[in-house]
Amino acid sequence: MPALLCATIVFGLVGASAASLNITSASLVAFTFNNVDIVTGQTYVLYPSHDSFTNDKAKNTNYGSEEYFAVTTGTKTVTYGGQSTEVKKGKAYLSFDVSGVCAGAVTSATLQLTGPSSNNVSGSFHYDPIEASWDESTITKNNKPSTGDHIDIDDGDATSTYTVANIDVMSTLHDSAQENGLIDSSGDFNSSSDTALYGWELKDWNNTVWYSSEHPTQSLRPTLTIVVSSCP
């Protein structure tokens, strides 16, 4: 998909490329839709095109349709929707369709996760840039994609109702350029290259549970916010 002008608002169904509706940001003040990518000016808020988790207790099981994902250092019993699942060394995977982001200099990229207030987000965890394409409907422990060097991070702040983690993924966004040509040598999105961001693997995080893109409440789903300083 060609790069969009900064004034264009883009709507994209989860799992599909964003499509231009040729509506300028001046036309709408605020809007809310389910399963959409939202762009206003040069700030892009993207929902995952794919997200899931893997479980060492069930290495061939796919969890792509679950409303949550578990990131655990050891073994945790997750009770959700009336069902209990024992998760061992759970790792989460998230990827995003960035085809609607204009070809400009990226100034920030923040991955936001929301989970229940019972989450323990103290201490550090790791996240790794994913180096190959994958699909939430088929990923398992035994076929998960390869990843790059892990990055240590300590980021999580509690709210009165939910636990929210804001993760700065800017450095790995640039690292991914070496894998799939997403960002060119000047740090700009390269509209002539791949538009798929393979995303990140999250791991080693104090047995936490996070809401996925399948969660019925849109405000609790993961987001990637990308800010571009200028567009051609």
Describe the structure.
- By secondary structure, this protein is mostly beta strands.
- It has one domain (8-228).
- The protein has 2 helices and 17 strands.
- The strands form 5 sheets. Strands 3-4-17-10-14-13 form a 6-stranded antiparallel β-sheet. It has a 5-stranded antiparallel β-sheet with strand order 5-9-15-11-12. The protein has a two-stranded antiparallel ribbon with strand order 1-2.
- The chain is globular, with a radius of gyration of 17 Å.
- The relative contact order is 0.26.
Poorly predicted runs of 5 or more residues: 1-33, 175-182, 190-195
β-strand number: 17
**Arithmetic mean pLDDT:** 73
What is the ordering of alpha helices and beta strands?
Answer: EEEEEEEEEEEEEEHHEEE
Q: End-to-end span in angstroms?
A: 16 Å
Strand order of the largest sheet: 3-4-17-10-14-13
- Proportion in helices: under 10%
Strand percent estimate: 35-45%
Structural class: mainly beta
Helical run tally: 2
Apparent shape: globular
CA gyration radius, whole angstroms: 17 Å
The major beta sheet can be summarized as:
6 strands, antiparallel
Count of structural domains? 1
Give the assembly state of these chains: single chain
